[in-house]
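Entry for zinc ion complex. Fields follow.
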Amino acid sequence: MNEKELVAKAQAGDFEAFSQLIDANKSKIYALGLKMTGNQHDAEDIVSETLVKAIDNIDKFRGESAFGTWLYTIALNQARALFAKQKQVDLKPIEEYLPTKKAEDLHSSSGFKIFDWEDPHKRLESAELKRIINEAIGQLPAKYREVFILRYLEELSIKEIAKLIHESEASTKSRVLRAKLAVRDYLSGRFEEQYGQKMS
Amino acid sequence: MGKKCLDYISELNDYLDGEIDPGLCAEIEEHIGKCENCRIMVDSLKQTVKLCREGKEIELPKQLEDKLNSMLKSRWDKKFGKNN
Ligand SMILES: [Zn+2]
């Protein structure tokens, strides 16, 4: 049965059809919630609230987008509503996440080389790596975590994100960059630490 | 990364995200070829995105799946007027 037929059945009250429609998307929504909020409890809330909204509004779905996209938009709005409640903290200016600044603080001599991670998969176990990656995203203040996820995990364009968060494209772009540099900086610090431990 | 390289960071990122005009692209590639730190910066920024994309699909915990199913079913029955 194709999606259109499933939607028609669901709108007529067939729960099985609805279940099939959401099956392919449940995990995706959960993963989005987990990344956005950084905790399982909120991620679970996002999944259940999204699906409840989908039930309540199933008759309003007109098939203008794929069903998955429709669900995803609901999930995104749920996640953003939760975000609004989180404390808004700012990141340091871009320069602080660049190695030069730190190098100047540490050693005034030149010839400084920034840490080269190479491929972390070769150095760390996958569970450990996964934990570090989640920490790196999780440590971002909410408004940065949001744009980072939307840009690089959900692969939305700067234009789309700007519209979603009601900011100019220029400021969205710089927010995305700061977020990315902060994630890189965090990963770099953690990898340097971990690689060092492995070698000693 | 020299002082000059700092000015590059926004362009470096555009370059990585594929949002840059070809002229500037060649200029950056030339710089990366000469500047080890910028090369590492570009590599690690690339890895940052790649790593974060891994594990994007996380399975729904079984417990939640069960809880969800019964909750959704009762919501559904309420909406479509089946009270059993
Ligand atoms: Zn350079």
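NOTE: Residues 16 and 146 of chain A are 33 Å apart (CA to CA).
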